[in-house]
Amino acid sequence: MTGPAPAVSGLRPGPEGPFPFRQFIVKMHGRCNLACTYCYLYEGPDSSWRDRPAAASPAVLDRTATRIAEHAARHALRDLALVLHGGEPLLAGAAPLAALAGRVRELVPPGCQVHATVQTNATLLTEERLAVLADAGVRVGISLDGGTAVHNRRRVDHAGRPSWPAAARGARLAAERYPEAYAGLLTVVDPTLDPVETYESLLGLRPPALDLLLPHGNWSAPPPGRTGVRYGDWLCAVFDRWWSAGRREVRVRLFEECVALLLGLPAATEALGLAPFDAVVVETDGSIEQVDSLKSAYPGAARTGLDVFRHTFDDALRHPGVAARQAGPASLAEQCRACPLLRVCGGGHYAHRYRAGHGFRNPSVYCADLQRFIRHVSSRLAAATSAASAAATGDSSARWLPGAGPPGAAGLSATDQPRTGHGGSGQAGTGPAGTGAEPTGAEPTEAEPTGAAPVPAEAAPATGESPEPPEPAEPTAPTPVPPASAGGAPAGGAPAGHVPAGGASARPVASGSARAGTVSTGGGAW
């Protein structure tokens, strides 16, 4: 076991914290059968995996299950997420994964629901293994970079051979034979690929949910190809394709939760918003660590010095690094706290803020890209809300805009949302919501929003090319995100839960619920 990470001084949990962990990421196997060229875990600065056992022992797994149950009982958790992870967790076999899920369910207090998910590269999926996982109530999330061999050219095995043929077989087997156990796909954004082609190829694998991740990078080790707002433009192009589909083809977590935050609804994602982070990792040797994404910053960034044999998860809650991630705006850079996009952006992914010599109190290295994306989503949402509001009040002077959904179309209220994480069985609000009109591809500008006008209209974002953390772009109009009213709607805005476009519905998570399998730690976690 490794020693503790350097302390982060001057931070305490928020006024209601510390918040209990609700996502428990257990490293079933510490090695991987692939050698993806962009993998931050095995190709990055932290090589602590080399000093740990390849697989978690029965003693580690049993003690981990006990500690999870102990934490659930102490904090009266109604549900929690158990994420079976690696490396490639299926190198441990399907039976140990099923056994751990069963053991945790056996030990947690009555009334606590355990949402178990395994995140795999799909190359080792077989019908027999899928049957074992499905029977044990373990859902399967799959990491792929697209739906073709070309998209997955960086995902190779240790001999340099492509992983796509085996991964495609595994993904299609899950979709066709075990759809109830198929959680969805996780994809790392590659700005060199055509965004719409990549998205549509992923739809061909029939995922119930899709998670789009920005590659891990920071100010000292910038992500590949970071020029201008290349990543933001990529996300905007996919968002427009998704938003204008006329129906909800797939749940895209980043998009749905951005919409939720813009509407003033609660949302839970590591990439956006100010929700306290609530995930913890158990390594193969029983070490309790922070999430793997921190390992992309510097060696030892995820260490706590704790382990499941001598320490509780409450001990981990008191670690300075965890406190920093539960401190809300207090942990953010001054530029972020002054930014009108604060409540939606939340400073971006924590690992993306790092800069050697300055720690994590910086804007995200993707600051300009996030501004571009959030303002773009806001403009589409405001236009759609305006059209729907005008129709509801009988104002025929406002022209309805393509892709905005039919006037008066309603999404889900905060109490209607499924709380089972990616690919949850709750699919309310998935019916057709468009008119069949072809999207114009242009930004709607005709109507002033009468409902929620969450953030300023799109402005020219910062270039993101400076090696220094940029100042936030000046908004064109100082209109912050409207606060949520007691009913869950933005004050003075759209009705509660109204998401009037493209069949998209936000997925807020009720207080105390688990965000099952929603951790995004790069090309591996769900």
Structure description:
This protein has 526 residues and is an alpha/beta fold. It is built from 13 helices and ten strands. A ten-stranded mixed beta sheet has the order 7-6-5-4-3-2-1-8-9-10.
Strand content is: 5-15%
Taken in chain order, the helices and strands follow as: EHHEHEHEHEHEHEHEEEHHHHH
Compute the number of strand runs.
10
State the secondary-structure class: alpha/beta
Unreliable spans: 2-15, 396-454, 457-467, 470-526
Which terms would index this structure?
alpha/beta, 526 residues, disordered C terminus, 26% helix
TL;DR?
The chain is of the alpha/beta class and 526 residues long. It is built from 13 helices and ten strands. A ten-stranded mixed sheet has the order 7-6-5-4-3-2-1-8-9-10.
Furnish the topology, listing elements before pairings.
Blueprint: E1 23-27, H1 40-43, H2 58-74, E2 79-85, H3 94-107, E3 113-120, H4 127-135, E4 138-143, H5 164-177, E5 182-188, H6 195-203, E6 209-213, H7 230-243, E7 251-252, H8 253-262, E8 279-282, E9 287-289, E10 306-307, H9 313-317, H10 320-325, H11 334-337, H12 342-345, H13 367-392
Parallel strand pairs: 1-2, 1-8, 2-3, 3-4, 4-5, 5-6, 6-7
Antiparallel strand pairs: 8-9, 9-10
Helix pairs in contact: 2-3, 3-4, 7-13, 8-13
